[in-house]
Amino acid sequence: MGGVLIGFAIIGFVILVGWLLARFRIVSQEGRLVLNKTSFFAASPALLFTVLAESDVQLLFSSVLAVALLAFVAVALIYIAVARIWLTKDASRIALAAAASGYSNVNNIGLPVAIYVIGDASFVGPMLLLQLLVIAPVLLLTLDILTSGRASVAGILTQPLRNPMLIGSLLGALVAAFDIQLPAPVLAPLEILGGAAVPLMLLAFGISLGGERPLQPGTGRREVWLAVALKNAVMPAAAFLLARFVFGMDDQLVYACTVMAALPSAQNMYQYALRYDRATVITRDIVLLTTVLALPVMLLIAWLVKPA
Fold first, then answer.
1. Which pairs with CB-CB distance under 8 Å and at least 24 residues apart come from 10-17?
2. Which domains can be identified in the chain, with CATH numbers?
3. Rounded Cα gap, residues 201 and 255, in angstroms
4. How far apart are CA 100 and CA 271, in angstroms?
5. Which residues lie in coiled coils (predicted)?
6. Can you give the chain as a three-state secondary structure string?
7. Which pLDDT tens digits describe the chain residue by residue (308 residues)?
8. What is the mean pLDDT of the chain?
9. How many other C-beta atoms are found inside a 10 Å radius of the C-beta of residue 154?
């Protein structure tokens, strides 16, 4: 469990630095947009390319992937139904919060969890590929359509090809699929650039916390709590039920699927919200609260579900 604590401590420290930069007015709230754009258009595409280039694309067809996909769809549909009926009619706001209800922090928290809690880093692969190659493109395409004002068929079909993060993901997947061995001079600059992606996202997230406290009145608190309940409680429960009773997995795989489903919402959600200028406060609060609650939830899962 020490690896999980270390993972949370690392993320918390970088977020704290961002908050201090805003608190002492070293960086303004507008400055976080610069960090976000740098990550979105440069660092994140490089990171996604290098990570996926070394992934096993065949993992997309594993039963672990099926559990992750079905659990995500379940919580997203629940959020959409409840939010649309009782909370808001804003489609882009619903889309972002619904995605945040199931899109997990696989990169930053998932890896130490897989290594130190489950004991096998390979469980990161299916979720990473699912989120980058399926969920993120669908979400970004949806946001493109909802925020564009008008959308032609050609524009809708070609919009993903103009998104740098999706381009980086697809190119990395192709390299992995065809087992292309890239030379070190090609990978090295991309790895350096990609190394800046997560710190930039976390700093921008921390700076946003210096603007106003989370869960302020009038900021969509009911929407936030709905998403938090789905991410921290319903999604792990759905993954457990699917793995145990639908796919009939053994105890170790059931435990792995449940723990991975309990990961907090990813900072990518806040990055996307900033990029499209929609639901930024809501997604920020969802990421923050699910991150705070994820550790006790995973400790509870380890106590209840972990094989003897």
1. 10/108, 11/108, 11/109, 11/202, 11/291, 14/198, 14/199, 14/202, 14/203, 14/206, 15/202, 15/203, 15/205, 15/206, 15/209, 16/206, 17/203, 17/206
2. 2-305 (1.20.1530.20)
3. 30
4. 11
5. none
6. CHHHHHHHHHHHHHHHHHHHHHHCCCCCCCHHHHHHHHHHHHHHHHHHHHHHHCCCHHHHHCHHHHHHHHHHHHHHHHHHHHHHHHHCCCHHHHHHHHHHCCCECHHHHHHHHHHHHHCCHHHHHHHHHHHHHHHHHHHHHHHHHHHCCCCCHHHHHHHHHHCHHHHHHHHHHHHHHCCCCCCHHHHHHHHHHHCCHHHHHHHHHHHHHCCCCCCCCCCCHHHHHHHHHHHHHHHHHHHHHHHHHHCCCCHHHHHHHHHHHCCCECCHHHHHHHHHCCCHHHHHHHHHHHHHHHHHHHHHHHHHHCCC
7. 565 677 777 878 888 999 899 889 898 877 878 888 888 889 888 988 888 888 776 766 678 889 999 999 999 999 999 999 999 989 999 999 999 999 998 876 777 778 777 777 667 777 887 888 788 888 888 888 888 765 555 655 565 666 787 788 788 888 888 888 889 898 999 999 988 888 888 888 788 777 666 666 666 789 999 999 999 999 999 999 999 999 999 998 999 999 999 999 998 898 889 888 898 899 999 998 998 888 889 888 888 888 86
8. 85
9. 8
Structure tokens at 114: 């897989």
